[in-house]
Design a protein that fits this description.
four-stranded antiparallel β-sheet; globular; alpha+beta; single chain; Deoxyuridine 5'-Triphosphate Nucleotidohydrolase, Chain A
Length: about 170
């Protein structure tokens, strides 16, 4: 198995800024406690393809509700690799928990963006059975899988990224 990536926490300053943007009204002291307990993604078993992302807060979502979660995590990876994000299989099966963009794509150059490549995961409880999603802080709620990719023989992309959602389509 090739070792092609490493997870890091974003800086305290970046996490504080992004957390306040997602969840207003918390004190810096409370946010610092959350930051200090962040866990890097891990595989559950040696045969697992996915790295579990752990929620930094309790998630309670009634059917139709959504939440944008700043994970505090960034992924450094080799070029020609991508990190794809999905909901944890059990949460998707039991509650129809979905990522709002269906599959998250974390490109290798995102690590170097001004926001430090901070990975956000926006989820929706799409339950059709009136089920409420409850995930405790520190539990896995999403999973990431690293995949190698190729490009066309006539590819001429030379631009560099600086930003997250939609940053590669801005001209």
């Amino acid at each position: 198995m090739r070792r092609i990536a490493k997870f890091h926490k974003v800086s305290w300053e970046q996490f504080l800024k992004d957390w306040k943007d997602s969840f207003a009204g918390q004190t810096e002291e409370d946010i610092r406690k959350i930051y200090d307990t962040l866990s890097l993604p891990k595989r559950a078993t040696q045969g697992s393809a996915g790295y579990d992302f752990f929620t930094p807060l309790d998630i309670i979502l009634k059917p139709g509700e959504m939440m944008k979660v700043p994970t505090g995590i960034r992924a450094e990876m080799e070029n020609d690799w991508v990190l794809k994000l999905y909901p944890r299989s059990g949460l998707g099966f039991k509650f129809r928990l979905q990522l709002n963009n269906t599959v998250g794509i974390i490109d290798s150059d995102y690590f170097y963006s001004d926001n430090e490549g901070h990975i956000f995961i926006k989820i929706t409880n799409d339950s059709r059975e009136d089920k409420t999603v409850n995930v405790k802080a520190g539990e896995g709620f999403a999973q990431g899988i690293f995949l190698e990719y190729g490009i066309t023989v006539d590819d001429d992309a030379t631009e560099t990224r600086n930003g997250g959602f939609g940053s590669t389509t801005k001209r």
